[in-house]
Specification:
The complex is a heterodimer of chains A (437) and B (160). The radius of gyration of chain A is 24 Å and the shape is globular. In chain A, β5 and β6 form a beta hairpin. In chain A, 21% of the residues lie in helices and 28% in strands. Classes of the chains: A alpha/beta (437), B alpha+beta (160).
């Protein structure tokens, strides 16, 4: 048997989580060998920017998340465009599609999410796409170049669906969004802000059909899409379909292994899986959500990086707890700026909503037992982080909650102990100034 | 690294730090021209907060664990290894405000005109940034701290 190369830190996945990990590892360990494996052929790119590529606003080179010499500078070996097909937990070995085998000392599973594609008829037809990778964006771009007159049906009015709609409209493609629920962006926005986006999308020329699903994608004898049939029998003709229902954890490597899986890979506060030495982060992992007080899937970029960073530090021997994350989103579709975090509407009567609204400004907090569990800011989003960190630090805001939605909200809206802590200032002691930072 | 520190107990909230920050980041270094004659006023990277007798000047403090760097969707926000400063690459920034949502100080601001995020840049390598140089009460001062990871200056400032 050939000698199998042993790698100190083997990272599967080359996006936010994987990069968060390798940057943390290099802070703690300058020399330990690192290899990053990814089935994507590109150096790390900003996944949210694929919409700017499709819109024609950025070239592929302009999507780079890190400098082009990032891997070289950090002494990281890369194996791109090659998929891991098997984990062997008995011998700590992975098998790659190319037949190559790699042995690890510490392993990180940052395999991300995979688009949800329901088993509907016609999903294999030409002109049917998903939209989560740069390869997807390139494929859609090529298709539009070949068929500039093709209309699009976007299945799903969530972040991915609205994002691809904005890009397609910029390419002068006519779009119809089909959303199963009663309103678009229903997971991350409340009724009010969702309607604002709905109106903005419509004003830009797209159609939105809510409360319906696509039951079938219609294709001709050449296997090319020509329309969709809705659950009520309505038929919409189109030349392309983008399936943007959401993503689910990409679990094929860990299914049928000893690694514990719930909806995603279960991890502890160090982002370690149930198998010692194997870590997971990002869209594939269920990490701690400080709003719900339990581990959940929160498939957003910032949490992936932070989870990766935590995993990396622990893999390199620096015991560090994951600070926790929650569902956070910041969007600027069609020129409307909205940030949201946590619970977006009061789930029941034990929650309270505080709302301030004037001109184009909309600020809403959701509270339970004096704690902020959710926030939505629109129009004026400056200083929103002051509140997000109250959520994260679980600060009881009961006595000053009203000031948090006022126009002049700032650090001084918070109790003195909290703002001093944020500024890390120390009050003067015995007349001698020791106020710092 | 060199950092800006505040002495909140001698800050009277006059706002000159904001004014000189705006001037420093204007296309002309003349107050009247910058504020009155050349289009929209430049944006300040510092913010004065005041309530009753308490006031202080807030700006990015280049946190030990910079949440903005970790959250940035495009890789625009990074820490400069040489200076320890957190910087925004304007080419990469898409102005999405994710950094603003995680900053505990509210120190990152949205430049709506250019659709970019802006923050204190230490006046682009000046020995003494404009806010510090023009604070009439020495409520702002610069000091070296041992490393990025220390939030206290290496040498304590002289007592007032």
């Amino acid at each position: 048997m050939d000698k199998i190369e042993k790698i100190k830190y083997l990272i599967i996945g080359n996006s936010a989580g994987g990069i968060g990990a390798v940057e943390a590892i290099r802070e703690a360990d300058k020399t330990g060998t690192i290899t990053v494996v990814s089935d994507e052929p590109f150096p790390v790119y900003s996944r949210p920017l694929i919409s700017d590529f499709l819109a024609g606003k950025r070239t592929i080179d302009q999507l780079n998340y890190r400098a082009i010499d990032f891997y070289e500078q950090n002494d990281i070996k890369t194996i791109f465009g090659n998929r891991v097909t098997e984990l062997n937990l008995d011998d700590n070995i992975v098998l790659l599609e190319s037949g190559q085998k790699l042995a690890w000392d510490k392993l990180l599973l940052a395999t991300g999410g995979t688009p949800i594609v329901p088993p509907m008829e016609g999903r294999e037809a030409g002109g049917v796409f998903t939209f989560t990778t740069l390869a997807d964006a390139i494929a859609i771009d090529d298709y539009i170049r070949q068929k500039p007159d093709a209309n699009a049906v976007v299945i799903g009015g969530g972040l991915i669906g609205v994002s691809v709609t904005e890009s397609l409209l910029k390419r002068r493609v006519k779009v119809t969004i089909i959303e199963m629920k009663e309103r678009i962006l229903n997971v991350i926005l409340d009724n009010k802000t969702s309607y604002m986006e709905h109106k903005a999308v419509k004003d830009c020329g797209a159609d939105i059909i809510t409360g319906h699903t696509v039951s079938k994608i219609n294709s001709n004898t050449h296997g090319e899409v020509y329309g969709v049939t809705l659950d009520n029998g309505d038929v919409i003709s189109c030349g392309m379909v983008i399936i943007a229902i959401g993503v689910r954890p990409r679990l094929e490597l860990v299914n049928n292994t000893d690694i514990k899986v719930n909806r995603g890979i279960a991890v502890d506060k160090h982002m370690q899986t149930s198998v010692p030495g194997i870590y997971a982060c990002g869209d594939v992992a269920e990490a701690f959500d400080f709003i719900y007080g339990e581990n959940r899937l929160t498939p957003v970029w910032p949490n992936a990086y932070l989870g990766g960073r935590t995993a990396g530090l622990n893999m390199a021997g620096k015991a560090t707890d994951y600070p926790g994350g929650t569902n956070i989103n910041s969007m600027k579709y069609f020129g409307i700026y909205i940030v949201s975090a946590g619970t977006i509407s009061a789930p029941d009567k034990s929650y309270q909503e505080l709302i301030a609204e004037h001109n184009d400004v909309y600020k809403k907090l959701i509270l339970k037992d004096g704690l902020v569990t959710g926030m939505i800011f629109s129009g004026e989003v400056d200083r929103a982080g002051i509140i997000y960190n109250l959520m994260k630090d679980r600060v009881n805001v009961e006595s000053f909650k009203q000031s948090l939605i006022s126009d002049d909200m700032g650090l001084l809206s918070l109790p003195e102990t909290v703002w001093r802590n944020r500024l890390a200032t120390v009050p003067p002691v015995n007349g001698v100034d020791c106020a710092v930072s | 690294m060199r950092k800006i520190y505040i002495k909140e107990e001698v800050c009277i909230g006059c706002g000159l730090c904001e004014v000189y920050c705006q001037l420093q980041h204007a296309s002309v270094h003349d107050l009247i021209k910058a504020f009155k004659k050349r289009g929209p006023r430049p944006l300040a990277r510092a913010r004065v907060e005041a309530k009753g007798n308490i006031s202080f000047s807030v700006r990015c403090r280049n946190c030990e664990e910079p949440q903005c760097v970790y959250a940035c969707l495009t890789g625009a926000i990074t820490r400069d290894i040489e200076t320890g400063m957190i910087t925004v690459d304007e080419e990469k920034c898409i102005g999405c405000c994710t950094c603003m949502l995680v900053c505990p100080l509210g120190a990152i601001k949205q430049d709506k005109e250019h659709k970019k995020m802006i923050k204190c840049d230490f006046c682009q390598g000046e020995e003494t940034p404009a806010c510090v140089a023009n604070c009439p009460n020495e409520a702002l001062y610069c000091a070296e701290c041992d490393s990025v990871n220390k939030e206290v200056p290496a040498k304590s400032p002289s007592p007032f």
